[in-house]
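Title: Prediction job returns without error message
Component: structure pipeline
Severity: low
Priority: P3
Assignee: unassigned

Description:
Job completed but the reporter wants confirmation the result is attached to the right record. Sequence as submitted:
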Amino acid sequence: MKVADIMKKDIVSVQGDTSIQEAAEIIVEKKIGSIAISDDGVPVGIVTEKDFVKYLASGRATDYVGDIMSAPLIRVKFDAELQDALKILSEHGIKHLFVEGEHEEGFTFGEIIGIISVRDVIKNLPDPSN
């Protein structure tokens, strides 16, 4: 199975100057584990539940998600196998991967076209007992 088969195309995102409170409310409302941070509609970073916890524990005084986002984005090509995506997730110790398209598939090279989570990948891996 390919990454494109399981990716979510609707990426929830906010601008970097969005308040941490507002971003947290969106994550809770949408029942998602992360939110993309965009610059003029292009994802440039990600804030995950783990980032919110680290921020709260740090005692830092910032109000904006752009200050706590993880960047650069870790990506996987849309036509990669799920096992390859799982390897990337594992190597980087992350739970979310952005999916990029390629020019010949009707996208601009490197354009972010979706997102997958480690949960999505594991749920869709073939059963090794079969």
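Comment from assignee: result matches the submitted record. The longest strand covers residues 42-48.
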